[in-house]
Specification:
Layout lengths: L29 H5 L2 E6 L5 E6 L21 E6 L5 E6 L4
Antiparallel strand pairs: 1-2, 1-3, 3-4
């Protein structure tokens, strides 16, 4: 999606042959297992940049963020869609 950022949060777990791993217990990245459903949110506007639900291997267009005042302005946050836990803050590049 436009403005999306690459990282463990936007990856589909796959084996060395590129075959998708359906069983969360076999996912190689522990953070994927702990946070299978994540969203990227632009903090100034509250706009959801993208979501990724590894449990269904797709986006979740119904997700609405619970914005937090503690989130840094002019940044993008990666959050767990189920717990709203802040997983990472990424500073935006000024245009």
């Amino acid at each position: 999606m436009p403005g999306d950022l690459e990282g463990w949060w936007s990856s589909t777990p796959a084996d060395e042959n590129g075959t998708v791993i359906d069983d969360p217990a076999q996912w190689p990245e522990p953070l994927m297992r702990e946070h299978p459903r994540v969203a990227l949110i632009e903090t100034d506007s509250g706009e959801v940049i993208s979501t990724w639900d590894r449990l269904v291997c797709g986006q979740d267009p119904s997700y609405l963020p619970a914005l937090q005042e503690a989130w840094a302005g002019k940044s993008i946050v990666i959050v767990d869609m189920d717990t709203n836990e802040l997983l990472r803050v990424v500073d935006q590049v000024k245009k």
